[in-house]
Design goal:
Strand content: 35-45%
CATH architecture: Distorted Sandwich
CATH class: Mainly Beta
Largest sheet: 9 strands, antiparallel
Number of helices: 2
Oligomer: single chain
Strand order of the largest sheet: 11-12-13-14-29-23-22-17-20
Distance between the termini: 27 Å
Helix content: under 10%
Number of domains: 1
Radius of gyration: 19 Å
Amino acid sequence: MIAISPSIRQRLFGRTTRGDDVTCFTLEGTGGLRLSVLDYGAIVQALRAPDRDGKVEDVVLGYGDVAAYERDRFYVGAAIGRYAGRIGGAAFTLDGTRYALTANDQPNHLHGGRRGFGAVLWRARTFEDGDAVGVVLEHSSPDGDEGYPGTLDVRVTYAVSEANVLSVDYHATTDRPTPVNLTQHAYFNLAGEGSGDVLGHELTVRAASYTPLAANLLPTGAIASVEGTPLDFRAPRRIAECIDADHEQIRIAGGYDHNFVLDGFGSAAPAPAARLADPASGRVLEVHTTEPGMQLYTGNFLDGSAGKHGHRYGPRAGVCLETQHFPDSPNQPAFPSTILRPGEEYRSRTEFRFSVQP
């Protein structure tokens, strides 16, 4: 049986510059996994997991106060929406109408615009259900928000189970056709946040294909094989092995910032997508998802800003495993559609399964 301790279930984290109170909800499972979530940005602020010796460390990057999250340019721990990834030219055409979005990444639209879902206050409530405890966060994005058509009602549910599984469920409905692509932007470092880079982590990705990038970091529209490239993680390999390879895709992104076409997409239940392991601590993270893609991002643009406990987060201080649909899908008809229409429901589930290896 799992219970939320009344003493730690929720606390005031701080106030936004608008004067809104920000609450931190802490959920703890009997297996030792402990999650802290903010109602600002539906942000994963901390995630504590035991190593092979039972020592617990915080394994996600983050900040210790609201002001730092308001200044953040790297989407640290945030729920991303309406659209994860880039939309080229900050525009798309839907049912014959051209929509102009906020351009916040040079000429492109990135991660929902200047004030995406990671920078709004969500309505929150906690729950206990069998062997899991969780928090439900809800937000209504109005028609015209960052240029998107339609009012979008969104729900994100985080839950922690006694088996040390963090599940993230997304649900959305709309009153007008609109693109929707939600993800979680946690930066993982299984050795502990602030411990250095993640280059020694071993990564496996269940993907034989990926979507290549053009020089502007937008997908070309092609789907290419990972065979013989630095993006072949079908067998475990250290992130360091090819992150600085003399390869066009690595040069374009300055490391890894690529969408993988997952092998298991199409199953009703979440399918294996990736496995991340830290040999030093023994911590293992397995990612299962219902999504067709996963963006692998190695924090290439992190600039040494101060995070929790004064730790500096430089490039490759964490790795993101962003389960989602493909970037720029509204402009790429060959990619799986991201258009949600009235009467339909957007549903997505990702599980982050923590364990240890000898």
